[in-house]
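HUMAN: I'm a chemist; might I ask for a sequence paired with its structure tokens?

ASSISTANT:
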Amino acid sequence: MRRLRQMSLTVLISALVLAYMSAAAALAVWLATLLPHAWHAIAISAGVLLPLAIYHVRRTLAPMHSLFRALAGTVASYRDGDYSFGLAWKGKGELGDLVAAHNLLGEALREQRLALVQRELLLDTLVQNTPVSMVLVDPGRHVVLANLAARKMLGDGRRLEGHDFDALVAQAPEEFRDAFERGGDGMFSVGEQDQEEIYHLARRQFRLNGRRHELILLRQLTAELRRQEVQTWKKVIRVISHELNNSLAPIASLAHSGAELLKRGQHDKLPTALATIEERARHLEGFIRDYARFAKLPAPRLEPVEWSRFIERLRAQVEFHYEHRVGDGIVRLDTAQFEQAMLNLIKNAHESGSSAEEVSLTLRRMPEAWRLEILDRGSGMNEAVLANALLPFYSTKRHGTGLGLALTREIIEAHGGRIALLNRVGGGLCVSLTLPA
């Protein structure tokens, strides 16, 4: 039956053609009896009946032509992303099956498009309402996408799409500019004391439509760090209590034992007990002294210092490669405090797993500041360590006090400077210090 339906249109057209050919032949024979030449009769019959034959064949094929044009139109609409069209065809057979399949395809595409739009709306809602500032920058350094947090942070709430990203950064506070100029991931602070805000910067590059783009994430950590700082102080109280108990308990016990030895006249065992009491007391004294030094850091006594002499003093105490990108200059420092801060940072670089020859110090003269960078090729810091490294008493070392970086930060900020930690491209850490010139 399907083969018969498929052949019905062909049979109909063939029948029309044969009917007109028969009519043309009969007309030619009749005209031949009236006209002197036979070819005149053939020409007249063909001229009369051929247009009629063409008209009927075209009229028979007209519905199919309309269907094919409609199919072409809907395919063009699908190509343009419009899936709202459907086809109506009353006929059956293969053409009816083709129309039904085409309509099913359109319905499937509409459902997929609707699901895609819903996912895009959900993703856009998440991106726009996340507290992390997100900026997507194209190869020409123009903003492709910026969420609400980024608009508030970099554009006073206005749309940033299409703006030059470097121009936006140039209008931001100096701390922002310094963080972006250094490149890589890192943490930096803006403002001073009670107005200080702490940010974490992350940058990732990827290819989009064959072109390299950069995704920039700025996360404000101030509130989170404040909460962690409270937890850190609680931990400190526990640590100090534990250390005091570990020292005072044996001291009390040995003092009691010493008194008993005196009563019994066993004086030969007293030196051992007294030596142990002295050892525990000195340990406790050192422990408290280290914590007190951090809590009672004196204000720096600034005096003019030549960079060349200061660097020589450092190199006499610890090994590092020195790269100076300026001539000698004068900076106002508390030499003892700043030397201690630099030694802490350089020793940390040596303990990071970096080889000694890859630990380096660079010095640059900025328009209104000096910038020092301590560089290594160690393991760097993961995001959690990077966010907590400058907090007092936070340490990843088994026997560390967690005071080294915190004390360094206190010293740098007391000198009117800033400190930032950034992971280096290719591995390692960059500790950047900025001091007023």
User: Anything to note?
Assistant: The domain at 303-436 is CATH 3.30.565.10 (Heat Shock Protein 90).
